[in-house]
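Hello,

I think I submitted the magnesium ion job twice by accident. Can you confirm which output corresponds to this input? Input:
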Amino acid sequence: MKPIRKKKTKLANIKKIIDRQDEIVTGRISSLNLPKFKKYVICNLRGGIGKTTIAFNLSYLLNDVLVIDTCPQGNLSYFYDSQYFSNNRTTVKDLILPYILPGLGKPSRTAKKIGATNPFFQNKNAFYIPSTSELYLLPSQLSTAINQAKTLTGSQQEEALRNILYSLKYEIDRELEENNLQHVLIDTSPFFSGATHLSWHASDALIVPVRTDQQSINSLELLIDVLENPASEFRRNMPKDGVTPKIQLVILTHCTWSTRSGARNIPNQQTKVYLEKIRDIVSRNIQHFTTDDPDNHILLLDDFLGTGRISTALSKPVTLLQAGETMRINRVKTTVNQSVEKIKAQLQFIANSII
Ligand SMILES: Nc1ncnc2c1ncn2[C@@H]1O[C@H](COP(=O)(O)OP(=O)(O)OP(=O)(O)O)[C@@H](O)[C@H]1O
Ligand SMILES: [Mg+2]
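Support: Only one job matched these inputs. Its output is below.
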């Protein structure tokens, strides 16, 4: 009897999240009732789970937005500018380094209008600060600077630490003001050391994509440990006035759905298993979330399939794609799936739930 009872309880736990899915897709609800923040960082300590894809698509759905690419791979920068890899320009590294290596000049007005290089953003008031592969060096530069600051004492140490750890925050605030922007999205690498660390200090809340696999569930637990553990890289270097950001949303990506006829918007077994695991983690750690109701913080995003491949190939937001559009990608005929309307509704719902 015991195992059956346990299973029933768990399914009841995720029922609200699953039922909401149908309401989202049919337009019966438009957003979660959550506190709203100005600056979000999209992060999880694992690659290939959808951080950049979500950052790119959300940036299209927000207005007056500043996007910062802090991932040395530069995938988001490439979405915004197909010439990214061959262009020399001011990058996020140029904003951070003067705080770490005193003597370097501070740049200003680094943000670029996305519409200048990505025509799909032409009519949007959206700006971005590009990344650079040189960010691969930032973790060691940052750790040297922090260790040096810690050789100082008293208020001198505090000031030096604040200068380093709030570098990105100060620069983002300056760019927001100079360009009169309202919202910030920061895309991150799969690693904490370096720019992700600075992004946490620069943001108000986290958006955490988790893919439907065990490794990304593990990374969610790891991320919560970095938020919570006093010995973590984040907590042990915290300035006295430092704030630990809370998690606004965990987004379960690559979700697949039941194909049973009549099963409208019901996740398949694999999606349900991961949803249950996430619901467990969120409720055990609810003090790290922006409200005290676990159901408020978990959303699902369909597997993008061909829609994602076409969106990436064209650097075109999913919102602008239509079901049935086709193109050849590496000689393979690829189609925008029928599920694109559902994905558009899910993305819009996420956007409405953060601003
Ligand atoms: N529901 C979904 N959400 C996000 N991405 C999806 C989803 N379904 C499929 N995808 C695909 O999964 C891939 C996610 O890659 P993406 O570059 O966004 O991951 P990432 O977390 O930024 O990786 P990295 O840490 O290497 O930068 C893309 O090819 C995207 O089209
Ligand atoms: Mg990425």
